[in-house]
Known about the structure:
Structural class: alpha/beta
CATH superfamily of the largest domain: D-3-phosphoglycerate dehydrogenase, domain 3
Helix content: 25-40%
CATH architecture of the largest domain: 2-Layer Sandwich
Bound molecules: nicotinamide-adenine-dinucleotide, D-malate
Number of helices: 18
Largest sheet: 7 strands, parallel
CATH class of the largest domain: Alpha Beta
Number of strands: 22
Distance between the termini: 26 Å
Amino acid sequence: MKILISDGMHESGLSMLRAARGVEVDAPDQPSADEIRKMLPDYDALVVRSRTKVTEDLLDRSGKLKVVGRAGTGVDNIDVQAASSRGILVMNTPGANAMAAAEHSLAMMFALARHIPQATQSMREGRWDKKLFTGTELYEQTLGIIGLGKIGSIVADRALCLKMEVIGYDPYIIPEAAAVMGVECVSLDELLERSDFITLHTPMTAETRNVIGREALRKVKPGVRIINCARGGLIDEDALCEALLEKRVAGAALDVFAQEPPTASPLLGLQNVIFTPHLGASSVQAQANVARTIASQILDYLQLGIIRNAVNFPSIRAKDYERIRPYMALAESLGRLQGQLFTPIQRIEIEYSGPEFQELPLQPLTQMVVKGLLEPVLGEKVNLVNAPILLKERQVELVTTTTSHSRGYTGLISVRVRGGDQEGAADGTVFQHDEVRLVRLNTYRLEAELEGVNLIIQNLDKPGVIGVIGTTLGRYQVNIANMHLSRTPDKDRAIAIIRIDDEAPAEALDDLLNHPNIISVQQVRL
Length: 526
Ligand code: NAD
Ligand code: MLT
């Protein structure tokens, strides 16, 4: 397996990757976009920070790439949609640099309040400007936090220790959760009107772009100070520039910019603005943390298939992994079975029954069913990440339900497929922790293994059919590994699921089908 690290990586993560068995790591020094494009087709994984832009164009050259790992939080330098439709997992390390970013925001707030960078500069220039740099205390000032996630909540906690009054705006956090943090939840307008300091901690989305824009800056408390260590596009820089010149905003501390580096920004010329070059996550501890975290996530995915912190696939917690693993295999086999028995499919209904599914994450199982279902049709093109996208493209409806009703099983997955006026149902379960079994196929109750090549033969329940099947397959040198039989409750029809060592030739299937008591013969690879 080959891993390309295109933006450098702290030694703690690099050594983990280099020590992994069967893994080859390349970490060229600051490769250009063109160099990355040329190298990429050879690699299974790409690890980036923010320098490499993982565009659709680059992903078109992805070859066998399975995963892009972002050693950091924001994935705005990665075209996640383009990666998903190519079946490439994108993972980040949320929280691994949160402490560094929170502390940097607080450092910026202190520096802004007490003019520390400007005073340093003035002393370097030989001055002793005591009066010029009179600052403001933070004590009993109101801090407005926009975005109360991992970083915003650490900032809130530390600001409360400074005896600031902390108010917050986050439409996705319930006021009770904010209250537990000691933060009063308010509307954005109220936050703008009341805050002496405003700090931004949201991701960059269509909704948050320019959240501090001209209109918001008209509503702020005069003399407010603004800190942004989240993402550049959250502030309209031209509008901020105007508000700073008009002294409506007393100062700003910026770590992030709409364009980085912000070479042409008029903000650079303003004395009441302080800057750092996107240093929020640049602490030794955070760099070691993100590097270790992404290295272990990448190895877990490439070597064990464990998915953590993927932004385009639901994560499976380590503690759930052993329990969910056999159900993932079951889900895929049921999907693959139905994908081969039934075509074309217009609607899929998946039901998860039993106590097992009250706790396990179901989305990965659903994606496994869909992957299994599409694989016989689309081949290697389909994987866990792009399966839902491909299903949507094919306009297949997908419905999932859960019930605690166990039907005698701790966990039963039922996959019902419909197309035209036809429908087919397959139920499966896991026995003894890892024995995957098909327990129902349409009206037949069974206990069949779901692996290898199988013939599924329906016949009239008359004597001698099994003998005919055995001699016909024998004539074509097809060896039977095992066989599961069942019949309908009224005993007029029967089914045989016959596992064979190698695929049976089409002539053997035709011979079987020509027998008057055999209704259907289908060969499936599970
Ligand atoms: P997070 O996902 O834990 O928290 C983000 C919060 O923003 C969530 O609580 C979410 O509900 C909230 N939010 C989303 N949309 C919102 C909206 N429209 N209005 C208000 N709140 C909204 O993320 P985090 O780890 O706390 O990171 C926050 C930001 O900091 C991200 O943009 C991240 O990229 C950035 N970051 C920057 C640096 C740096 O080096 N400067 C380092 C780490 C993270
Ligand atoms: C992040 O999103 O993690 C930060 O912006 C830091 C970085 O770019 O690495």
